[in-house]
Amino acid sequence: MTQRRPRGMRIADDVHRALRIRAAETGETMEDILDRALRRELDMMVYCEICGAGGLETPATKKVLGKDACDQCAAELETALQIGPAIWMVEVSDGEEYEGYEEADYGTIDFGPYTLGWRDREAAEAYAQRAGAEVREGFVVRVIGGDVGDALEAAGIADGAGFDGPAGVVWPHDDEEGLRKRLLYGTDA
Q: Total structural domains in the chain?
């Protein structure tokens, strides 16, 4: 026998009973279980990119650091993000090296325009004054075992510079948690 369920869905009583039991066992809603089953049946399932690299087809539940991930991989990706230290960044558009260039803690490797980063605000301000540039607050960002560029792109963050390994991201020092959420979960965070 098929009964009419809320939202116009008709399912057999034995399926409804099994669905109710599964929801009670897992703590999920019946709608979540139905949605996942229908997506799998209709070939609309989004799978974990990390598990998929190992040949597994694990349903993705979150998007973390720009990657579709299952709960376990999402937790691992969340620990891969490292933010800090806080730095002061100076972008020099003329490509000239001024006194104090070698004292920077971080720097880009390109020829021409470049960006330097200091942990010491006063040193950054002194260099910026010599270079005729401005000082901006930011953070050093790393993704252990991953690509920081992918995370920045997924988060919609383009204001910064790639250093040798990490990236320097222009972001207010009083909002490190906001940066963490944006990098982990993208622009919707």
A: 2
